[in-house]
Design goal:
The protein is mainly beta and 394 residues long. Strands 1, 4, 5, 6, 8, 9, 11, 12, 14, 16 and 18 form an 11-stranded mixed beta sheet that branches. The protein has a 7-stranded mixed beta sheet with strand order 3-2-7-10-13-15-17, with no helix packed on it. It is elongated, with a radius of gyration of 22 Å. The chain starts with a helix and ends with a strand. The relative contact order is 0.16.
């Protein structure tokens, strides 16, 4: 009886508190609730046992395979259409069921149903919609799951949605010979402003969402830098946003790995004084299970990309892609260095902005991209994972 009471109390505490703490924490829980002192314990809503998932209708998608899925090699997943696994180390097709589903908010996702999921290899995910892995029993992973975007490389699953038009970053302005930098994308936090070059104003950063996303989705892109009016000038493209992924399990999740939905860095302005592109935001990472354990040394990151450097006659760099750590992505070095991307809430807010510089023949740096969301639903034990940005309970 004593063991049961302690377990019940711990479960109630975990639903009251998320992983996020102050800016310097790695996501440890707040002080526990003491039910004996009169704290109210939350009773879950009554609903069918099959309707267990937060973001999709579990009753409509209840045909799980009977054999567990394993990923033991260097695997890939493309979410377009009905989805396709590639690479090596993915167990046979009878161990999973893939389908394009409608989430509770009406948007689409690729749903991968499994009896259980054991991941010891690597998995890189790209495509036009986010992905949800849903297990009838357990999920255990000690691998790298990469749903990020990269400048000139992969686009994370479900990144750069049409929905981002409502909070979009603004491109740099170009009326003189020097281009303004593009604004960084905004999502969970605002993006940085692009740098101004002479009379050419940098674009405003994207704004933050007013509410937590109601579905698994990707983040929002950075804006393009201006080319100015100089001969041969060209602004850098904005960085793509990170993608969206959820791990959901009816029994438990044991996470001892790294997962990232980092945004891409903004591209550099060309050497004829083009403005740098703004960095893309981090995407969404979600965990949904009654029992969730984050092992020590794990990394869970949805960080923004750095802004691209402004162009001039010398060396110019693209912004750094969002990194799988608690550090900000660096802005690209150039005539004006791009703003750093968002990560853990440390440092001055101006670090997200492209530098403002009134020099001639020099493009403005792009603004850094804001952070994405890390969502958690369930009882959580965090044994020392690094979580950037801090998680949000749902």
């Amino acid at each position: 009886m004593r063991i049961f009471s302690i377990l019940a109390l711990f479960t109630a505490c975990s639903y009251h508190h998320g992983l996020g703490g102050d800016a310097g924490s790695n996501g440890s829980d707040a002080a526990p609730i003491d039910a004996s002192n009169g704290d109210v314990l939350v009773t879950p809503d009554t609903k069918p046992a099959c309707d267990w998932a937060v973001h999709f209708d579990g009753c409509a998608h209840a045909s799980f395979p009977t054999t567990g899925m394993t990923i033991s090699g260097a695997a890939t997943l493309t979410t377009n259409g009905g989805g396709m696994f590639g690479g090596s180390g993915v167990s046979g097709g009878t161990t999973y069921v893939k389908s394009d589903i409608t989430q509770r908010d009406g948007t689409h996702a690729l749903l991968v149903l499994v009896h259980s999921l054991d991941m010891s290899g690597t998995l890189v995910i790209v495509g036009d919609k986010p992905v949800i892995f849903a297990s009838e029993t357990t999920i255990a992973t000690n691998t790298l799951i990469d749903a990020s975007s990269a400048q000139g490389g992969n686009t994370g699953p479900g990144a750069d949605l049409v929905a981002c038009t409502a909070n979009a970053a603004a491109p740099g302005v170009g009326t003189s010979s020097d281009g303004g930098g593009g604004g960084g994308g905004g999502f969970a936090t605002v993006g940085g402003s692009g740098g101004t070059a002479n009379q050419d104003v940098g674009g405003a950063g994207g704004t933050a969402l007013a509410a937590i996303p109601a579905a698994i989705r990707g983040g929002c892109p950075g804006a393009k830098g201006s080319k100015g009016s100089g001969s041969g000038a060209a602004g850098g493209n904005g960085g793509k946003a990170g993608g969206g992924i959820e791990l959901a399990a009816k029994q438990s999740i044991m996470f001892a790995a790294s997962i990232t939905t980092g945004g891409a860095g903004g591209d550099k302005g060309n050497q004829a004084a083009g403005g740098g592109g703004g960095g893309g935001t981090g995407g969404v990472i979600s965990f949904d299970s009654p029992s969730i354990t984050f092992a020590g040394g794990s990394v869970i990151a949805a960080n923004g990309g750095g802004g691209g450097g402004g162009g001039n006659a010398g060396f110019t760099q693209a912004g750094q892609n969002g990194v799988a750590s608690g550090s900000r992505a660096n802005g690209g070095i150039g005539a004006q260095t791009g703003g750093r991307g968002g990560a853990l809430a440390t440092g001055a807010a101006s670090d997200r902005d492209g530098e403002a510089l009134g020099a001639s023949s020099a493009g403005g740096g792009g603004g850094g991209g804001g952070v994405g969301y890390i969502l958690v639903h369930g009882t959580v034990v965090n044994l020392g994972a690094l979580i950037s940005p801090p998680s949000t309970p749902i």
